[in-house]
């Protein structure tokens, strides 16, 4: 028999018991569909995080207090209160740091927010310096927080678009309205354009107001520094680091109580986290493929038993062991590839729905599609090999006597 004839016969055999065939492929369908969905979502999440970080600008350095992860130039063990607004001012005014052109500081914390039309719990960021410029935030209406607002500890606020909608309703201009932040009345002076992520859900107030009136703190959460050029990033990081070491009375980078991140560092960390998470979930989903493969093997063993007489008759008429093995392997591979194709289709549909649901970029992972087809074939061969071998070992006389 030719391969085409064997293939056609395999299709015919599988069609004779459609329910068994469908149940046999169910494990493969679930496994392949899960792997496709998780790999696609992982890549979409990675792309989303990468786009958001890159949107902040290639020349941005981020300084944070406390311990850092391995791989950054400066970073040691410390509390999260080691950075002060005075550090940002020192960076801005230092003659030694000549590779930067703008600085901003932020202190953020979650608290209760209310208006006449609603209330919620949201993140409030006290800001100073060129914050909106460095973070590429623009306004859809109103005006920004200024240095004058900081000097007089003004109770003014700029809302993200999501929090604006939550407090005042869709399409309402809240400029001039009053909101209560932690029991204090603030006048809304602007609304930012949507950037995606948590920035759309934040409220921005003057840093001095946040520190002295709202939260009673003297430290900042983050200092943002804009380098003059992308080529000067490393020099800027060095100058920043040694200036802050001197201000914090530390003698070496190993003693630093702050961390300096570049956009490259953040991209690398985000990529590692999403890749690890995706690999973990994909590995868990892949277990169902093994379960599906075992199910295929069980069904094929049952099939061999049911068709013992047929196998004996074929061998008595001169069928070779190779032909018997090929026949049963073909049936196993057809089962798994059919399940793989259905699983790929369902996985792509689920991925499309979930990426839209969570506002992620729509990505088709063709690598995972190709891998799924290959894996389906391999599962069919591996788990179909033993039943095929068992069928080929049957003796014609014993097989013909089997009832």
From TrEMBL:
Domain annotation MacB-like periplasmic core: ranges: 21-240
Keyword Translocase: no
Positions of the ABC3 transporter permease C-terminal domain: 284-396
Top-level division of the source organism's lineage: Bacteria
Pfam families in the cross-refs: FtsX, MacB_PCD
Main localization category: membrane
Subcellular location, record wording: Cell membrane
Membrane topology of this protein: Multi-pass membrane protein
Secretion signal, residue range per the UniProt entry: none
Keywords (A to Z) from UniProt: Cell membrane, Membrane, Transmembrane, Transmembrane helix
GO cellular component: plasma membrane
Coiled coil: none
InterPro entries attached to this UniProt entry: ABC3_permease_C (IPR003838), MacB_PCD (IPR025857), Macrolide_Exporter_MacB (IPR050250)
Keyword Nucleotide-binding: no
Transmembrane segments: 21-42, 277-304, 324-349, 369-389
GO MF terms, alphabetically ordered: transmembrane transporter activity
Family named by the database record: Belongs to the ABC-4 integral membrane protein family.
Protein name: Multidrug ABC transporter substrate-binding protein
